[in-house]
């Protein structure tokens, strides 16, 4: 007697009933305000975090917290400048053409 090949439909129906679904966001474009300076700060912050976890020292932790705050401030500043620039370009285009435009 030969074994029957398992049906794919059975597997899919069981997994659909028992597996939790996860939602995630697919980003097609990278954030335009992230430049090389910002990436370097993020990389340095991540290195300091690993060092703080490995050594469990308060100095390392303090250096990580300072860098973390710097990255957060830099992100806010760059994002704000980016969108202010976009708005300014949009206003110039509206005033020049007299019609609203999509950026």
Major β-sheet, in short?
none
Quaternary organisation: single chain
Distance between the termini: 68 Å
Helix content: 55-70%
Tell me the fraction of residues in β-strands, as a range: under 5%
Summed over residues and divided by their number, the pLDDT gives a mean of 82
Structural class: mainly alpha
Uncertain residue segments: none
What is the number of beta strands?
A: 0
- Helix tally equals 3
Query: What pattern of helices and strands is seen along the backbone?
Result: HHH
Query: Any idea what the shape is?
Result: flat
Whole-angstrom Rg: 25 Å
Can you characterise this structure?
With 103 residues, this protein is an all-alpha fold. It has a domain at 34-97. Helix content is 69%, strand content 0%. It contains 3 helices and no strands. The protein has helices spanning 8-18, 36-55, 58-97. The relative contact order is 0.08.
Task: Break the fold down into its secondary structure elements and pairings.
Layout: H1 8-18, H2 36-55, H3 58-97
Helix pairs in contact: 2-3
In short:
This protein has 103 residues and is mostly helical. The protein has a domain at 34-97. It has helices spanning 8-18, 36-55, 58-97.
Keywords for this structure?
mainly alpha
